[in-house]
Amino acid sequence: MATAKVPPQLWQPRSYSGLMTNDLTDSSPEETVPCFALSKNDSYLMSSSGGRISLYNLLKFKTMLSIMQPPPAATCIAFHPQDNNILAIGRDDSTILIYNVRSAKVITILEGHSKRVSGLAFSNDLNLLVSCGADAQIFVWNVEGWYKQRSRFLQIPDGRIPFSLSTDTHIQFHQNQTEFLIVHETHLSIYEARQLECVKQWVPGDFATQISHATFSCDGQMVFASFLDGLVSIFDASDFQLYCQINPTAYLFPTSSLGVYPTAIAAHPQEPNQFAVGLTDGGVIVFEPPISAGKWSMLTANENGSASKIAAELEANY
User: Fold this and answer.
1) For a pLDDT cut of 90, what percent of the chain falls above it?
2) What is the pTM of this model?
3) Of 98, 134, 132, which Cα lies nearest the Cα of 116?
4) What is the phi/psi pair of residue 57, to 5°?
5) Which residue has the higher pLDDT, 6 or 27?
6) Which of 157-166, 237-246, 296-305, 306-315 has the lowest mean pLDDT?
7) Is residue 159 very low, low, confident or very high in pLDDT (cuts 50, 70, 90)?
8) Which CATH superfamily is domain 13-203 in?
């Protein structure tokens, strides 16, 4: 239960002294695509870093089994929300494998993307699987028959040229299970899943750097986003109104190298105003709003339209 005043602690069973380690390929870590997914009861972790996919028991820190020797390598994983034995596995050959862990059988292979699959998300209410990839496409698959319902290319903002022709796209369903967040280096957008319509979009300013990651808060009211220049922004999820921006000087040590920036961001599952970022140097930082504000939403934009800048009063822990 980390807070800004209680540092996060590394926990592992007393009876086990080692760490869970993924099977790795012969390539360098920088070239692999790490991915993992938690089961719905948080007892199991399915994880891969370019090699075989391993199923870990989180309570015992024990490897239960390993599957799917690459190639192709897994690039994203998602548990079926109603059956922990069924996995959706996105792969770097552009396919999605639907796999039953208990029977060790492939249920089906979904094809449609033209580049690696970088994001998968299930909607329990709609019986849908949504996928996105480095090809800037979104696919909606019917879970009952595992067939494609519809697809769409991302609406890349005019004049925004992705840094790479194979930019990964990430996806996350809102808690209402009917809308989902799309994270692309050029923009953030929210889509309605049934018709696959973009209902709102946010585009960085002309001189802003690329978006590295983003996520909904646990109550779905905010979006936390990070950028390659170290900036962290907090938005209202309903209209992408910018509540505040956190400058890298507010949370990075002065001795940090210029190449350190947030590469992953995660919302606390019960505290809407708390989130954590993972840095390129391996650091993890927990953020909370200043005590004087209490909520990020209280840090509204200044009269000149610029977002509130958080520096000395920022509540963070390393």
Assistant:
1) 64
2) 0.89
3) 134
4) -85, 115
5) 6
6) 306-315
7) low
8) YVTN repeat-like/Quinoprotein amine dehydrogenase (2.130.10.10)
Q: Is residue 118 within 8 Å of 146, Cβ to Cβ? A: no
Residue-wise pLDDT for 56-104, tens only, equals 998 888 899 999 988 999 999 999 999 999 999 999 999 999 999 999 9
- Dig out the tokens for 315 from the structure: 């509540």
Structure tokens at 23: 């099977």
Q: Which CATH number fits domain 210-318: 2.40.128, 2.40.10, 3.30.1490, 3.30.1050?
A: 2.40.128
